[in-house]
Design a protein that fits this description.
The complex is a heterodimer of chains A (about 400) and B (about 450).
Chain A lengths: L1 E17 L2 E18 L3 E8 L4 H11 L4 E2 L8 E7 L9 H15 L3 E18 L3 E18 L8 E7 L4 H15 L9 E8 L3 H10 L2 H5 L20 E4 L2 H4 L15 E6 L2 E2 L6 H6 L8 E2 L7 E2 L4 E3 L6 H5 L4 E6 L4 E2 L4 E6 L1 E5 L4 E5 L2 E6 H4 L4 E8 L7 E11 L1
Helix pairs in contact in A: 2-3
Chain B lengths: L8 E17 L2 E18 L4 E6 L5 H9 L12 H5 L4 E4 L12 H9 L2 H6 L3 E19 L4 E19 L2 E11 L9 H17 L1 E2 L3 E7 L1 H13 L11 H6 L13 E3 L21 E5 L2 E2 L6 H7 L7 E2 L8 E2 L3 E4 L6 H6 L3 E13 L2 E13 L2 E7 L3 E4 H5 L2 E4 L4 E3 L6 E3 L2 E4 L2 E4 L2 E8 L1
Parallel strand pairs in B: 4-6, 8-18, 9-16, 15-24
Antiparallel strand pairs in B: 1-2, 1-5, 2-3, 5-6, 6-7, 9-25, 10-11, 10-15, 11-12, 13-14, 16-17, 17-18, 17-19, 19-25, 20-25, 21-24, 22-23
The chains are: A alpha+beta (about 400), B alpha+beta (about 450).
């Protein structure tokens, strides 16, 4: 019998901000442990939160085999690898003072705005090991700041945001980015042109990839219920569009193994290459059941049976800066868009609550609320220009994504 | 018994949780787990700042409280603090589900109930993939505070969530079906409803056409009305966004006209299918609150801190998704009050337009959005062909003033999957509903 331990720990210091001042400090340190038992046909799991007796969890796991949850796949084995990046960010004892100092500077520089939400230092740890030579561990500490901005005279709940998630804390870069957003926000302009034009998204905008990820699920492709079911191996998107699953801890701040303890070579796995849909993403079960290539794409709660899921992706970079991608012209930057969606056929429509004109360096002015429309095959096909090599600011993992779309005022 | 530090406000919330999750995909068992755990959230307030700690170390709560108190500054006048003065010192035991706890139902019975849906899923050839999940959750909360609160209460939900993908020729449809009850016995009798839903989805995929974008008169179903109320106005009624903001206080003066005179929106209340929140996560009694009454701004949702800041009454709306989070102002059961005309009469008001039956999701800022999964044209006041719509959007206040008819029934919906998200806290269990609602001039894309 193979016995496997799956352990996660999340340690956080979170400062909550209200009216550009520190409102609260939260400390959280929660660990979760699961012991999985595999008998070659089935999986059983025993799990607990916090401190626990692992031998009891192992007994629970063996007992849980009687639930007959099928798992006729070989657990991952014979790999030892660890990743640990624990930069000194802000000392615990200085965290509140540092946050208050940052907020005081923001308040001085941007007196017309109020700021809220949170600043965190997050340490996450994840390990998976078993008695057939698997021992993978991942530890990462990072700084996260999400500030919601509201113009003091505005009657909106929020007007804009600034979001950082990075391996370093650089106060000057944060202040510069806040200045850039606030400065453009106060300059109102009209949408100069309606119809198809170049649109820039922040690369971490969840809506953009949502349909792509949903339709690339191995189970949907395997059961022929995916929009892409008949397009595997065919060119569906632009030559310049390559989309991969990436679990590169050095670049993506993400665990390098999946929930089944599998690791892809170079931590990457191309799903779409030069516009051709190569394959869907799969876990062991999906790959075996539907005879699909295996992409190490299992996700799970600490106490769940691993199942197919997409946990981190990226595009092949265009190699161009945002300025180069825009070719010296200004474009519409979709800065805040909430509530958009795709139809089953892949038509996309999204209201944009905050958009700027953007020249690749500065956010020039704020546009009225607009609506952007496209179709998945056009967004990543004829309309696709690429993702910028540069990020919104140093230390951030978020770049710019450029494509042509239909734009109209709401 | 916890010894609270002097000259500080302290409260401790302990959650004992029992959860079941049984999941099948295409008839194969994927998950069968029971999760039992306890966790606690501690809050200390010194009059200026809050200090929070989430822990699973229930035996070491005293040490956690003492350690957290070291960060706070002692305040001799803490009991005179406006926020602390607002907090209620309730002493109560409100355990409703001890005798009919989902913990007492055998796992086999839960599996057997879940499997009662498989026949329909397997019999429809156009359903190519499906996941069916049974979920239950009972939480017993204990709450103690340094001002004397001592409360124990529970809530419980169980149900089934089914996701399925249909394919017809080159067309795809992803749909869901949920049933939810507070007790296990309340789940029975939904199989027919499920069959009807599958039939509706089959007809939809076979006949749906893309909508011609434009402005339409729209009738929202009770569930769509509820999501609209929650997203478009409910979030704006959460008073935490007004704290210390003079513009917002002026903008959101009680008594201001914000919608059509036939529109009333409430949060809370004792509904069979609503959220069961006798006390919030600050130990305050949950009240029913009118947010809009006859088109006039009538109230808002509060925690202790927001009620103190705005000098209004506490409403018992401070909620946390679980023991790892602090309570923030959230909704419970948000609904539009029904009107006085029948559904037939309501449809007669719309000669041509769109009927929205079911939504994938909604969102609400100054512009709200609704993403319909099942929508239909209305032709000559009758439901016509199914329409594929990406989103319906509009300005919240313009749209609230465009509400032109409400049917006379009220349906409230609870769910076992998904929930409401606010800041980092997702998903919070909420309920919503309303009557059929006629809204003029909506932007359909």
């Amino acid at each position: 019998m193979i016995i496997e331990k799956y352990y996660t720990r999340s340690k956080q210091s979170v400062i909550n901000i209200e009216n550009t001042s520190v409102k609260s400090l939260k400390k959280k340190d929660i660990s979760r442990t699961a012991i999985r038992a595999y008998d070659g046909k089935r999986i059983g799991i025993g799990a607990a939160l916090g401190k626990c007796d692992e031998s009891r969890l192992a007994s629970d796991a063996k007992l849980a085999l009687k639930k007959n949850i099928p798992y006729p796949y070989a657990p991952s084995a014979d790999r030892v690898e660890s990743f640990s990046y624990l930069p000194a960010l802000i000392k615990d004892e200085n965290f509140v003072d540092e946050a208050q100092d940052l907020l005081s500077q923001i308040a001085k520089r941007q007196p017309l705005f109020g700021f809220s939400h949170e600043i965190s230092v997050i340490e996450s740890e994840s390990c998976i090991s078993n008695n057939v030579g698997l021992d993978l561990s991942y530890k990462n500490r990072y700084f996260a700041l999400t500030l919601l901005l509201k113009e003091k005279k505005s009657s909106n709940i929020m007007d804009a945001f600034v979001d950082f998630r990075g391996k370093s804390y650089d106060k000057n870069e944060i202040l510069k980015e806040i200045d850039r957003v606030c400065s453009a926000f106060t300059k109102k302009a009209r949408l100069e042109k309606k119809g198809r034009q170049t649109v820039v998204f922040l690369s971490e905008d969840g809506l953009i990839y949502s349909k792509l990820i949903s339709e690339l699920n191995g189970m949907k492709v395997g059961t022929k219920s995916s929009l892409f079911a008949d397009l595997i191996g065919k060119k569906a998107f632009g030559e310049n569009f390559t989309f991969m699953q990436s679990s590169d801890p050095y670049n993506d701040q993400v665990r390098f193994f999946d929930a089944e303890g599998s690791v892809n070579p170079d931590y990457r796995y191309n799903l779409i290459e030069n516009g051709v849909i190569l394959r869907p993403f799969t876990d062991k079960k999906t790959a075996a059941e539907y005879k699909l290539p295996y992409s190490a794409s299992a996700v799970s709660d600490y106490d769940s049976v691993p199942h197919v899921g997409f946990f981190s992706g990226r595009l092949k970079n265009s190699g161009k800066t945002i300025k180069e991608l825009l070719g010296g012209k200004k474009a519409v930057l979709v800065y805040l868009s909430s509530g958009g969606d795709f139809t089953p056929a892949g038509d996309m429509s999204a209201p944009v609550q905050l958009a700027f004109y953007f020249d690749g360096t500065d956010y020039l002015c704020r546009l009225p609320q607009i609506q952007v429309k496209s179709n998945i095959y056009d967004m990543f096909g004829k309309g696709f220009k690429g993702e910028s090599v540069d990020k919104i600011c140093p230390g951030s993992s978020c770049g710019y994504l450029v494509m042509d779309m239909d734009v109209s005022e709401i | 018994m916890i010894k609270f530090p002097k000259n500080l406000y302290t409260d401790v919330r302990i959650e004992d949780v029992f959860e079941t999750r049984i999941s099948y995909a295409l008839n194969k068992l994927e998950e069968d787990k029971i999760r039992k755990y306890a966790g606690a959230f501690i809050r200390i307030f010194d009059g200026a700042r809050w200090y929070y700690c989430a822990t699973t170390n229930i035996d070491g709560l005293q040490a956690e409280v003492d350690s957290l108190a070291l960060a706070a500054k002692k305040n001799l006048k803490i009991l005179k603090n406006k926020t602390v003065e607002k907090m209620q010192a309730n002493v109560a035991r409100c355990i409703k589900y001890e005798n009919n706890s989902v913990e007492k139902i055998k796992s086999d019975k839960k599996t057997s109930y879940l499997k009662s849906y498989f026949g329909k899923l397997n019999s429809e050839k156009k359903i190519k993939m499906w996941h069916a999940t049974y979920v239950d959750r009972r939480v017993v909360k204990k709450f103690f505070s340094s001002i004397g609160a001592k409360i124990e209460f529970d809530n419980q939900k169980c149900g089934v969530a089914i996701r399925f993908d249909m394919v017809d020729k080159k067309k795809n449809l992803s749909e869901t079906f949920q049933v939810c009850s507070k007790v296990f016995d309340g789940l029975s009798g939904n199989e027919k409803k499920f069959s009807a839903h599958i039939g509706k989805c089959l007809s939809f995929i076979e006949n749906s056409v893309a909508v011609k974008p434009g402005r339409y008169n729209v009738i929202l179903s009770p569930i769509a009305s509820g999501i609209f109320a929650h997203e478009s106005f409910g979030h704006k009624s959460e008073a935490d966004f007004m704290v210390g903001d003079e513009t917002m206080k002026k903008e959101w003066t009680i008594g201001k006209k914000v919608g059509s005179p036939i529109l009333s929106i409430c949060d809370g209340g004792d509904h069979r299918d609503g959220e069961d929140v006798p006390f919030d996560d600050e130990g305050n009694i949950k009240k029913e609150t009118f947010l809009i009454k006859n088109g006039i701004l009538a109230g808002r949702l509060h925690s202790g801190a927001t009620a103190a800041d705005l000098d209004e009454e506490i409403t018992g709306n401070a909620r946390a998704i679980n023991f790892e989070y602090e309570p923030i102002v959230r909704m419970t059961t948000t609904y539009i009050k029904p009107g006085d005309i029948s559904l037939d009469e309501l449809f007669k008001k719309v000669k041509n337009g769109i009927y929205v039956e079911k939504l994938n999701h909604g969102s609400g800022m100054s512009t709200f959005t609704l993403a319909p999964s099942l929508a239909y044209e209305i032709k000559d006041s009758k439901i016509g062909k199914p329409l594929n719509i990406a989103v319906i959007t509009g300005d919240v206040f313009e749209t609230l003033n465009e509400i032109s008819g409400l049917s006379n029934e009220l349906e409230i919906f609870s769910f076992v999957g998904g929930g409401c998200g606010k800041m980092a806290q997702w998903p919070l269990s909420v309920a919503f509903g309303g009557p059929y609602t006629f809204v003029r001039n909506m932007n359909v894309q």
